[in-house]
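BACKBONE GEOMETRY TOKENS:
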Amino acid sequence: MRVIIVLILIIPPFLSFSQCPTGDYTGNISLTADCTISSNITVTGDITFNSTSKLTINPGVTLTISGELSSSYNSGVLEIDGGGILNTGGRVSVGQLSSMTFDNVTASMNNTSSSAVISMDQSTLILENGASFTVVQGNFRSANAASLSVVNSSLTVSDGNLLIDYQGTFNLTNSNLTLSNGDFQTENETVLTITGSNLSVDGNMNVDYLSDMTINGGSNVSITGDFNNGIDPTGTTVTNGDLIVDNATFSIGGDLNNQYGSSVTVDGGGAITVSGSINNFGTATISTPGGSVTLPIELIAFAARQEGNAVEVNWSTASELDNEHFYLYRSTNGVDYVQVAEIDGAGTSSTMKEYSYKDSPSSSGRYYYKLKQVDYSGVSEEFSPVGVYYELLFDGVQLFPNPTKDFIEVAGVTESGLNNISITSVDGSFGYSLSADFDNGTAKINLAFLPSGLYVLHFESAGVKQNYRISKI
């Protein structure tokens, strides 16, 4: 008896398809040869390159992939070109040791992957010849030792961060890069070169340990947040970042933080403009052999001193950029401040400007003054406070000599009008009641018993309490 066995092979609908699609397709596609898309096609699945090949999307044609566009490990040199449009619902992922080029195509991806990887380790991703690449959602990560080049093209990350990972390289040449809502991040030993391009970051930017960033060739770089040189993406100090701005402009909306061992060099007519503060730590350096670094204002002096019955506050600037006005604040404890004046700024100026304001506190004591600068866009910067000891003076009353060895004389008072004389240490920890000898309208008070130091002399003159600081030598 002969038995015939018939094997029936059932092909699942999502088994990989190994040829170029000519119409809408449900399932995953594996490309091993060149493929041309000449009509609008939707692939409900993934497309994977497994060997050197080219995907051409003709002009006016859209290829939509619901899943990912990726290449496998060491899959060779891959190219997407043709002038058409590519939309992916998932990420675009370049496999390790592979190269992928987008040439004159418009591509957008929705990176919902938790790993947020676009270029795998030691891979190469190139955008060239008018390519437009947009990450609609999620982060863009160029992984360890990977290379990312954007040449005569544009790259946009709409809502996420861009990370150049450990030992990665990034080249932006005659192109535009926009981060609409995220940070530009780098890891250790990365190299970033921006030439003849525009880079806009609505967030912060960092240059990590032993990493180099060069902005040249007429480039314009603008970030709304802080620029952290020698700091990793988490904000941890790692030292030794290097920034060069040569024949380019770099606008920083926040602070420039230059950490220990890091350097900033501006040359070739380049310029850095900082809306916040410049913080140079340790051995960090900022040099301008042929360029400039500009704050909204460059404050070169800020001081307060008593002049008669007023405190005179003086400050000067070496340069100003869009400086609308200053606010001057006063405090009795260095913590709680009240505004005492608003003074117009000089707008934009490259010459030294001097400012002065006289304040009249109502009582003697130590006062602190703080300055705040506001530019035309409303961005402000505060400067460290200065302190002054103020003694309220009254007409016709004079003390001398001060400093003194033995006696202090008070002129302009009468014996009947001088009462409740005492002296205390400046911190108020101890004090003594005193008496005075009078001669022709001058009261002589013996201080010989006091050790050397600073004291406050208190008395009432014509019913008004007065306090004067005395130096005993």
In short: The longest strand covers residues 310-331. The two ends are 130 Å apart (CA to CA).
